[in-house]
Design goal:
This protein is mostly helical. The chain has one domain: Winged helix-like DNA-binding domain superfamily/Winged helix DNA-binding domain (Arc Repressor Mutant, subunit A), CATH 1.10.10.
């Protein structure tokens, strides 16, 4: 079953939180493997819930502290930290899933 994905060039270019990528794929080189990983990250971010995207955006794009995030959202500091940690874990799982889908699609193209 083909997967209909919006072409990357039509998507906004969110900043890539590099620490969430596997160590061997970090950086800005344009190798095929690195491009696949960055594409997977962008798709995975879009699959997160609005709350998950919000806290990750606040933490990594805006550089907000746990305290500032907790104040902005009206939750405790520990709740903010837990929400960020769960969002990171979910994002990591989604990235892995997106990479598997990309690999399977590429294998189908090779046949």
């Amino acid at each position: 079953m083909p997967v209909n994905l919006i072409p990357l060039e039509q998507r906004p270019d969110p900043r890539t939180p590099q620490h969430l990528l596997p160590v061997h794929l970090r950086g800005s080189d344009n190798s095929r493997e690195n491009l696949c990983c960055r594409t997977a990250l962008r798709y995975a971010i879009e699959l997160l819930s609005k709350k998950q995207r919000q806290v990750l955006h606040m933490r990594y794009n805006l550089g907000m502290s746990f305290r500032a995030i907790s104040e902005e959202l009206g939750i405790s500091r520990s709740a903010a930290a837990k929400r960020i940690k769960r969002s990171q874990e979910t994002l990591k799982s989604l990235i892995e899933l997106c990479l598997l889908v990309q690999r399977d699609l590429n294998l189908d193209d090779d046949m």
